Amino acid sequence: MTKFYFLRHGRTVYNKELRIQGARADSPLLDQSVQDARLAGKYLQNIPFEAVYASPLGRTQRTVQLACAAAGITLHPVLVDDWREFDFGKWDGVLEDDVVKRPEFDALINHPSQFDGTALGAESYAHFIQRIKRPLQSVYRQHPSGNVLVVAHAMVISYLLQTIRGLSVDEVRPAGLVANTSISVLETQDGQSYVVPMWNNTEFLK
After folding, report:
1. Measured between alpha carbons, how far is 122 from 23 in angstroms, rounded to an integer?
2. What is the pTM of this model?
3. Parallel, antiparallel, or unpaired: how do β-strands 183-188 and 194-201 relate?
4. What does the pLDDT average to over 83-111?
5. Which one of 35, 70, 146, 158 is most buried, counting C-beta atoms within 10 A?
6. Is residue 95 scored above 90 in pLDDT?
7. Given this model, what pLDDT does residue 148 score?
8. What is the mean pLDDT of residues 32-60?
9. What contacts 24+ positions apart, CB below 8 Å, involve 191-196?
10. What per-residue confidence (pLDDT) applies to 166?
């Protein structure tokens, strides 16, 4: 059985400022997030990981560095471009308040299946779901009976795990996105069927 431990990066400056932060925009972790990443590492320290994977964005790389150091994990993270955050196009990095009244924003948040981001240079949800699922098979084939750590983003983790267990793209956000520095687990015996025994765990942060 392959067991994927998905860790969301810590809260960032842009998260605090309520800016859209996707595949292009990036900002540093807040001071509290540095401590939270270390707490996540301590929570994971007794798990024998075979590999570590991470989005190439700075906020995820900093989180994986801190968590692995706290956990005593010496594996070098493999960067996976397909696990970078949703690409919001020219909205990446802008304040939510500046675009919240736009019909495209309403579709982006409330009606993903109807979202057309062509004019923004943003990706579609269909493309997003396809790319975030793409690495699973190769990781499973490399580690068919091991534990792997994946450090990624709110939308990546939430839409990947929730659509795998049957939710539509329109149902994922109402069910709630994973929190900063949370851990969720995805398991598979065969690389075809998956279960989610742990979702959005933040108990170790208290």
Report:
1. 10
2. 0.97
3. antiparallel
4. 97
5. 158
6. yes
7. 98
8. 98
9. 191/2, 191/136, 191/137, 191/140, 191/141, 191/144, 194/164, 194/165, 195/165, 196/161, 196/164, 196/165
10. 94
Kindly state the tokens that stand for 179: 């929190």
**Nearest-angstrom CA–CA distance, 2 and 195:** 11
SS3 10: coil
- Rounded to an integer, the average pLDDT of 174-188 is 98
- Give 4's strand partners: 148, 186
Q: Going by C-beta distance under 8 Å and a sequence separation of 6 or more, which residues neighbour residue 43?
A: 183, 204
pLDDT tens per residue across span 125-140? 999 999 999 999 999 9
The partner residues of 132 in beta bridges, in order of sequence, read none
What's the alpha-carbon Rg for the chain, to the nearest Å?
A: 16
What DSSP string runs through 24-69?
S---PBPHHHHHHHHHHHHHHTTS-EEEEEE-SSHHHHHHHHHHHH
Q: What is the 8-class DSSP label of residue 91?
A: G
User: What's the pLDDT at 206?
Assistant: 82
Q: Cα(122)–Cα(21) distance, rounded to whole angstroms? A: 12
Residue in this structure with the two tokens 């990036």, named with its chain if needed: 26
- Contact in structure between 55 and 152 (CB atoms under 8 Å): yes
| C-alpha span between 9 and 29 (Å, rounded) | 8
First vs last C-alpha separation in the chain: 30
